[in-house]
Amino acid sequence: MFDRVGNCWAFLGCSLVALGLSAAPVLAQGKSSSGSSPKAALIVLKARDSKVTPQKFGYSATGGGTVTVTQPTPDTILITMSGVVGVGACACGDSHAMLDFVLDQEFEVEFAKGTPQSGRIEIEGRVYGLLRTEGKKGGGTAHMTRAFATVNCGEAIASVTLDPQGTACGNGLAVTSVRGPVAGPVVPGCFHLHQEFGIAATQPKCLLPRKASADFAPPPTLDSRWINNPDPFREANRTNNGFQVTIRLIQDASSPAPAQLALPPAPVNP
Fold first, then answer.
1. How far is the C-alpha of 42 from the C-alpha of 155, rounded, in Å?
2. What is the distance between the alpha carbons of residues 120 and 110, in angstroms, rounded to a whole number?
3. Which of 1, 77, 161, 197 has the most beta carbons within 10 angstroms of its beta carbon?
4. How does pLDDT run across 49-64, given as a tens digit for each residue?
5. Looking at residue 152, what is its pLDDT?
6. Helix (H) or strand (E) holding 259
7. Which helix (H) or strand (E) holds 189?
8. 14 has a pLDDT exceeding 60
9. What are the extents of the domains in the chain?
10. Which residues pair with 154 in a beta bridge?
11. CA–CA separation, 21 vs 270, rounded Å?
């Protein structure tokens, strides 16, 4: 039985060869099975140092406080900082809460051999969040204190800075802020990303049940006791809340081939 099956496969293999086909899949060198070429521009992540510092005083809370660095494609990295702070009124004194984020990320730029060894870095910043306060009298404040990111190599190459945001006196504010993309030239080598983000909420001493919050994280980070009732943003999409920075490496296009010089016509003998 084995010999018969083996002979059948041998016959099939010979038939395929005769037709100019192969019995096994063959991948083109440097390409995937789907036919897509590998990236000629590459960001290689190196050392990283991130810190999230909470500060609380009085009747207050902080949550989240995360820094994530992902690489969806070889030439792109995505950094997200997210967290929440909430404060409530206290008869004994003022309350405040803060979250400070700092990230230092080293990375290396590489270009494939035989391709242009120059390009540009694009950096784009986005902030999504909700600021809530309660009560025009005795109400607190909620702020996004800072949000910026810079790529440098000895000196700044490209940076984005988003304006601070804040609200008070019983008002709310849905924050949607985008800056960039901003680009700067790069060649193969080592680079450094520095990124900072800050949020805060304060509530002065008060006998009334006031509260304030800065919500810059996906649900369900913020407990309901720190949210106004009714919540002015109860239908808001909070999935993308946080400070997101996208860095893309774009390689320069191949230089056009130099034009050939036209030879002068040969002299004609009289």
1. 21
2. 12
3. 197
4. 999 999 998 888 898 8
5. 94
6. none
7. strand 189-203
8. no
9. 41-251
10. none
11. 63
